[in-house]
């Protein structure tokens, strides 16, 4: 059958003839797929300066330097030139009063969130697709994040950002059929998580990222229990939430709420992810690592243990055997290096994968040998931490999504010179990704872990994370 050029997304991807019914075609129904609908093809225009960013023929994005106060710490991060910018969004999607905030989002947020600038256009295109289909819902989240960026420069409205956030939460609560609009729901969850990450004014204990991930996980479980198949765009946003959930699971030593089986597919083997890079195939091993961490924290034995031995020796032996097996598999893991990445981005993705692999081995070591338990183990963990920091410290600005490995490694440092290296890594990450979470993680390491160690107290960060809930969110 001839390839459809004006058909729905699914039919064009499958190169089959689309019947082109609206809003959903019958060809997809006949083939047993969920129709992803129709989208307006986006036209892109090369830009040399942020002043020329335009939203539509009737709405122009303009950055007037006289109207935007500059902060010496962050002025270089806002309104820097984009690789590409959206040249045509349908009229009426962005009201005049929201133009500056939307511009702030497109100029800054994708570039700071993704592992490499190679993925900026991809993120913009997917968000714009959902924005065109559901303008009110997605615009609120974009404007809210944009207002937070502008608020740091003294020209935004924190109150407006909070109002938009509450409006988005209300939309999610009252959505008639979120399973039918999974792309919209997941995109809103991702944007809400972005709000939590960049919000500088909410105290660490009030960060609601765990609640967002929990609600998203419940929705995803319901979707797959009904034997539904997510669209390509839905999986795109699902991977973002899954990555955040994995980092939170490692940090709090719990099982992931979003299982890797819901999103890991053949596409992950052929294309790197904007947040995970080339580490998507490492995630199942990290899922096992989380399971081991939770069982160790709660002192649980496996359900299939016939003898159900309760003494500490047998439990320790079993944990050690589990850890050795997992250690070998993590050490032998290799990233799936793909050819569809520019040469300039390849070193960043390789360093990203190496840092996460080494940090995972250090984390595994600390599950079995907690901090402060044995001097020899502390020395070995410190050496492992230095190796992680040496990987991150080459160009920390390019490894801005490696906050969790930086935390795991920095907590092991006790010498002044080693701590200086760790602080440089934290500062480098914040330089290119000025998020509230970057500041909070650095403060947790310095004020909680290092101070506890220097004063002879229990400095095990895996315990301190529960003593000071919400203070450390390494995302």
UniProtKB/TrEMBL annotation:
PROSITE patterns in alphabetical order: ZN2_CY6_FUNGAL_1, ZN2_CY6_FUNGAL_2
Pfam family, any one: Zn_clus
Lineage: Eukaryota, Fungi, Dikarya, Ascomycota, Pezizomycotina
GO biological process, one term: positive regulation of transcription by RNA polymerase II
InterPro entries found in the cross-reference section: Fun_TF, Zn2-C6_fun-type_DNA-bd_sf, Zn2Cys6_DnaBD
Domain Zn(2)-C6 fungal-type: 7-35
Protein name (Swiss-Prot/TrEMBL): Fungal-specific transcription factor domain-containing protein
GO molecular function: DNA-binding transcription factor activity, RNA polymerase II-specific; transcription cis-regulatory region binding; zinc ion binding
Location(s), subcellular: Nucleus
One GO location term (cellular component): nucleus
Keywords, alphabetical: DNA-binding, Nucleus, Transcription, Transcription regulation
């Amino acid at each position: 059958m001839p390839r459809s050029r004006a058909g729905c997304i699914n039919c064009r991807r499958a190169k089959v003839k689309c019947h082109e019914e609206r809003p959903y075609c019958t060809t997809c129904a006949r083939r047993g797929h969920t129709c992803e609908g129709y989208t307006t093809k986006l036209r892109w225009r090369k830009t040399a300066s942020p002043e020329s960013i335009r939203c539509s023929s009737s709405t122009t994005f303009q950055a007037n330097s006289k109207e935007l106060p500059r902060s010496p710490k962050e002025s270089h991060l806002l309104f820097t030139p984009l690789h590409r910018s959206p040249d045509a969004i349908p009229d009426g999607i962005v009201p005049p009063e929201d133009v500056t905030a939307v511009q702030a989002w497109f100029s800054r947020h994708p570039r700071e969130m993704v592992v490499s600038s190679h993925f900026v256009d991809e993120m913009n295109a997917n968000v714009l697709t959902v924005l065109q289909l559901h303008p009110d819902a997605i615009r609120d989240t974009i404007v809210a994040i944009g207002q937070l960026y502008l608020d740091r420069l003294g020209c935004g409205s924190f109150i407006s950002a909070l109002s938009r956030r509450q409006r988005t939460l209300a939309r999610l609560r009252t959505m008639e059929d979120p399973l039918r609009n999974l792309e919209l729901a997941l995109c809103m969850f991702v944007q809400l998580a972005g709000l939590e990450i960049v919000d500088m004014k909410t105290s660490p204990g009030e960060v609601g990222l765990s609640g967002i991930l929990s609600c998203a996980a419940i929705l995803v479980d319901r979707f797959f229990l009904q034997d539904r198949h997510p669209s390509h765009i839905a999986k795109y946003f699902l991977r973002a939430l899954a990555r955040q959930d994995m980092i939170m699971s490692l940090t709090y030593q719990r099982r992931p709420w979003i299982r890797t089986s819901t999103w890991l597919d053949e596409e992950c083997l052929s294309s790197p992810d904007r947040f995970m890079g080339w580490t998507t195939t490492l995630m199942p091993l990290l899922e096992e690592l989380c399971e081991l961490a939770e069982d160790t924290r709660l002192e649980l034995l496996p359900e299939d243990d016939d003898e159900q031995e309760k003494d500490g020796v047998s439990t320790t032996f079993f944990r050690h055997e589990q850890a050795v097996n997992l250690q070998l598999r993590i050490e032998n893991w290799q990233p799936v290096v793909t050819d569809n990445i520019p040469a300039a981005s390849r070193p960043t993705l390789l360093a990203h994968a190496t840092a996460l692999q080494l940090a995972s081995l250090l984390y595994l070591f600390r599950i079995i040998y907690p901090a402060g338990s044995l001097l020899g183990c502390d020395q070995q963990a410190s050496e492992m931490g230095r190796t992680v920091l040496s990987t991150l410290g080459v160009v920390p600005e390019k490894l801005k999504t490696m906050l969790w490995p930086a935390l795991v490694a920095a907590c092991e440092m006790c010498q002044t010179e080693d701590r200086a290296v760790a602080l440089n890594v934290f500062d480098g990450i914040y330089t290119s990704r000025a998020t509230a979470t970057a500041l909070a993680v650095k403060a947790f390491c310095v004020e909680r872990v290092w101070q506890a160690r220097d004063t002879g107290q229990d400095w095990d960060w895996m315990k301190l994370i529960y003593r000071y809930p919400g203070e450390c969110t390494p995302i």
